[in-house]
Amino acid sequence: MANAPHDQRPIELVWLKRDLRLRDHAPLAEAARHGPVLCVYVYEPELMTHPTTHASHLAFINASLIELDGLLRERGGGLITRTGNLPEVFDQLHAERPIARLWSHEETGLGITYERDKRVKRWAREQGIAWIELPNHGVFRPLTDRDGWSARWRRRMAEPVRAAPEQIQGVRDVPSAGIPSPADLGVAGEVRPEAVAAGISTGHSVLADFLAQRSRSYQGDISSPVTAWSGSSRLSPHLAWGNVSIREVYQATAARIAQLKAMPDREAKDWAKSLGSFAKRLHWHCHFIQKLEDQPDIEYRNLSRACDGLRDERADEALLDAWRFGQTGYPMVDACMRALAAGGWINFRMRAMLMSFASYHLWQHWREPALHLARLFLDFEPGIHFSQVQMQSGTTGINAVRIYSPVKQVRDHDPQGAFIRRWCPELELVPADYLPRPETMPVHIQHAAGCVIGRDYPAPIVDNGKAWFRARQRMGALRARAESRSEARSIQRRHGSRKRPERFPTAR
Questions:
Q1: Which of 240, 253, 259, 349 has its CA 20 to 30 A from that of 358?
Q2: Which segments of 166-207 are extended strands (E)?
Q3: SS3 for 11?
Q4: From CA 18, how far away is CA 413, in angstroms rounded?
């Protein structure tokens, strides 16, 4: 029932961030137990104009908010939006309607959100308002030691999923700013035409479809951009923006594995094994976010300081523009970048190859490529992103140096060119044998295929073999230094994995 306009009872303010859902939303569930609930999403100017933010991100957020508002209203609640800096927006809301408690999930995000949280904490303390932050992922705050992390993670994932509140005592007399467009907020870019649909119901449908059908050959499908399009879970945007929780996905996966293992046929058991591979990636999801939680400056600085000076921090814009716009002369690199520009998603191996190419073949510092990929990835998650970018660039000090050959990736994962021909139509008639290296086509074949190198498709911007060898030499010399090895031991103690998950607990 709507509150009267003069109602001035203190409210429970639920601050929505990357948790745009109803189920397994502990702050919402707890707030609903205490009194009138107001959910708010704040469009923060410094976040909207940050170099990692793109219009496609805002479109996903807005669609999720619209659906969430409808679901909250069905239960007596609802949400409002505001645009402005924090804690100033909270201060204004507090003047409009006294806030009893501020509820939110913990956030492991960008440096600007970390600093903003410090400001909000000071404001809440000064106002005498309790700010209750509850865990959102399998990330632990504070974490003084990585020992036992995997066991703690499994215990958290096995905790009961919080049900959505059946009834919410809503607040109706606080106005909303509505749903702004990217132009309203100065958000860069255009919405990606092939981006996946957002929302809670879509996220759960994608999960159900994956577990029931598409996960059958997950292990074999995820490496190729051809098969990964349908064989991967495709849940990453819904996890990044919180349409579903990692715990929900974990427990649903555990239940499906148990169901498959109980079946007598060999195919079901192979299917269960394939899903077990997916389950490990849920573990790694939080493992990488934990790194940023424990060391926020990996957004800006090399994790291994022995790598400082390894690459010039000044970007070679000509090389990076060729990479950004899919004009490198390497078909797999170019097809992946163009696919990302259209839909904001590509499979993990191809992401690793793209970052490897920028860091090793082009020998560029990871920072600018990382920002560009953040804008491209619809599922941009800061903790995973910056940890992975540094890992693929060789600056963690503890991970193996993997220099992906873009030529070999064609032969291994798109030998007939189905993916490449879709995203690089100028290569449509190029014979499959020449797709790994179109520049090796004899001139008469180039003309027959309507693809003259240097005219219709660029020549390679670097030599694959020479770039690979040069990068391998540089990284080998760096890793051989005594100070590099000493620092690697320290990094391993702080961030390294201790133990892989062995099995699932019983799903609840």
A1: 240
A2: none
A3: strand
A4: 34
Distance CA 484, CA 479 (A): 6
pLDDT in tens, 122-167: 999 999 999 999 999 999 999 988 999 999 999 999 999 999 999 9
Give me the sheet containing 37-43, strands edge to edge: 79-83, 37-43, 11-16, 99-105, 130-134
Q: Is the residue at 192 inside a domain?
A: no
The number of residues making up the chain comes to: 508
Give a yes or no: residue 162 inside a domain. no
Same domain, 352 and 408: yes
Q: Six-digit token pair at 144?
A: 């003084």
| DSSP code, position 65 | H
Pair 29, 117 in one domain: yes
Query: 475-496 in b/e burial notation, b at 16+ Cβ within 10 A?
Result: beebbeeeebeebbeebeeebe
β-partners of residue 205 are none
In single-letter form, the type of residue at position 472 comes to: R
> What is the percentage of the chain residues whose pLDDT exceeds 70?
96
Quote the number of domains for the chain.
3
Closest CA to 271 of 221, 331, 343, 321: 221
What number of other Cβ atoms are within 10 A of residue 383's Cβ?
Answer: 26
CA dihedral over 242, 246, 251, 255, signed as positive or negative: positive
Give me the pLDDT at residue 144, please. Answer: 87
Our CA dihedral for 96, 102, 108, 111, rounded to 10 degrees, sits at 40
Phi then psi dihedrals of residue 11, to 5 deg: -110, 160
49: nearest Cα among 93, 83, 88? 83
> Domain ends where: 269, 293, 317?
293
CA–CA separation, 53 vs 178, rounded Å? 20
Give the DSSP letter of residue 182: H
pLDDT digits (tens, 9 = 90+) for 464-489: 999 999 999 999 999 999 999 999 99
For residue 355, give its domain range: 305-495
Tokens standing for 132? 């209750």
CATH number at residue 111: 3.40.50.620
